[in-house]
Automatic annotation (TrEMBL):
Residues 27-116, 126-206, 210-296 form the Ig-like domain. It holds the Pfam family Ig_3. InterPro entries: Ig-like_dom, Ig-like_dom_sf, Ig-like_fold, Ig_sub, Ig_sub2, Ig_V-set, IgLON_domain. The lineage of its organism: Eukaryota, Metazoa, Chordata, Craniata, Vertebrata. It comes from the Eukaryota. Gene3D superfamilies: Immunoglobulins. SMART domains: IG, IGc2. This is IgLON family member 5 isoform X1.
């Protein structure tokens, strides 16, 4: 089929160039076309090496004559004549694109017969991401599906990578079942085909979960001193903090010599001048739209019985039961 098409092209060229004397009466198809690979956007140089016996020469692409000797036939501004000498006939195509790919033929006439030299131009296209999932926000335990579509020539590979711990998954689709908070963070889609540098885009996964208080500490200040109780909690969305005295009285910042300083992951209850009424039990409550968590803290007066540690690993209820049994035994004796 290619030989028939090329013969038709050469016949057309002979008619078009009849006035210039470039007659193509036959062709030598014994030599297969060479492959010439360039990257999209680069320049392609097509060279035809001849000798002094050549009387006429031209470059053709498909049914189009690009150059016949010094005469330009192509209307494409990107096609330029580089050299026309007794030994070489070369043209250049600037900023090559995918539609330039195909068979190019150098046809030249000697005293005895016409000849052809062919090259097949292959245009490689750098890998490029054309569609990727938007940022995702889900509750812990949900399923997450991410998509990353890429194009290029040769066919590009696609890899998903979690930036935090380096987890990778091959393929356009990333499926995460029952996602947990440790899997939250930024994921990179990386596509490459060896033509150019990899194309990389990122997707942020936010995993919502209820608060959990991670750090609390009692305080033992003297009267008249400054003291603080600290409560730290992890949560997404960030937790809102509230403080209570003796599990019922909600504390307001600025009242009764107290200041409440709330940050993203922690809350501080500040006593600027400790008095007797400040000692006691306090509750820190952390909450968001998914739930709440509370913990008790104490502001302990130095020298009070609360300072005496019980050297036992038994829970208080069990200790009470043991004490009751011991008293009963003494009574029976």
């Amino acid at each position: 089929m290619n030989r028939v098409l090329l013969a038709a092209l050469l016949f057309k060229m002979s008619i078009l160039l009849l006035s210039q004397g470039l007659l193509v009466r036959g062709a030598d198809f014994s030599q297969p076309a060479d492959n010439y690979t360039v990257c999209q956007g680069d320049n392609a140089t097509l060279s035809c090496y001849i000798d002094q016996q050549v009387t006429r020469v031209a470059w053709l692409n498909r049914s189009n004559i690009l150059y016949a000797g010094n005469d330009k036939w192509s209307i494409d501004l990107r096609v330029q004549l580089l050299q026309y000498s007794p030994s070489e006939f070369s043209i250049m195509i600037s900023h090559v694109d995918v539609y330039d790919e195909g068979l190019y033929t150098c046809s030249f006439q000697t005293q005895d017969k016409p000849h052809t030299s062919q090259v097949y131009l292959i245009v490689y296209v750098p890998a490029r991401i054309v569609n990727i999932s938007a940022a995702v926000t889900v509750n812990e335990g949900s399923n997450v599906n991410l998509l990353c579509l890429a194009v290029g020539k040769p066919e590009p590979t696609v890899i998903w990578r979690q930036l935090k711990d380096g987890f990778t998954s091959e393929g356009e689709y990333l499926e995460i079942s029952e996602i947990n908070r440790e899997q939250a963070g930024e994921y990179a889609c990386i596509t490459a085909n060896g033509v150019s540098t990899p194309d990389i885009k990122h997707v942020l996964i936010t995993v919502n979960y209820p608060p959990i208080i991670t750090d609390v500490k009692d305080s033992r200040p003297l009267i008249g001193k400054t003291a603080l109780l600290r409560c730290e909690a992890m949560a997404v969305p960030a937790a809102e903090f509230q403080w209570f005295k003796d599990d019922k009285h909600r504390l307001i910042s600025g009242s009764d010599g107290l200041q409440i300083q709330n940050e993203r992951t922690r809350s501080i209850l500040l006593f600027t001048n400790v008095t007797v009424r400040h000692y006691g039990n306090y509750t820190c409550l952390a909450s968001n739209s998914l739930g709440s968590y509370n913990v008790s803290l104490r502001l302990i007066r130095p020298g009070s019985l609360d300072n005496v540690a019980v050297a036992s690993t038994e829970p208080p209820v069990l200790l009470g039961l043991l004490s009751s049994v011991f008293v009963t035994l003494l009574f029976k004796i």
